[in-house]
Amino acid sequence: MNNGKYILGIESSCDDTAAAVCLDNMVLSNVIANQKVHEQYGGVVPELASRAHQANIVPVVTEALRQAGIEKKELSAIAYTRGPGLLGSLLVGSCFAKSLAQALNIPAIEINHMQAHILAHFAIRKQSDATPTFPFLCLTVSGGHTQIVKVESPLQMKIIGQTLDDAAGEAFDKISKVIGLPYPGGPLIDKNSKLGNPHAFKFNKSNIANYDFSFSGFKTNVMNCIHNETQKNENFIEQNLNDICASVQHTIINMLMDKIIKAAIDLQIKTVVIAGGVSANSLLRSRLQETGNEMGWNVFIPPFEFCTDNAAMIAVAGYFKYNDNQFSSLADSATARYEW
Ligand code: KG4
Ligand code: ZN
Question: Are 199 and 264 in contact (CB under 8 A)?
Answer without folding.
Answer: no
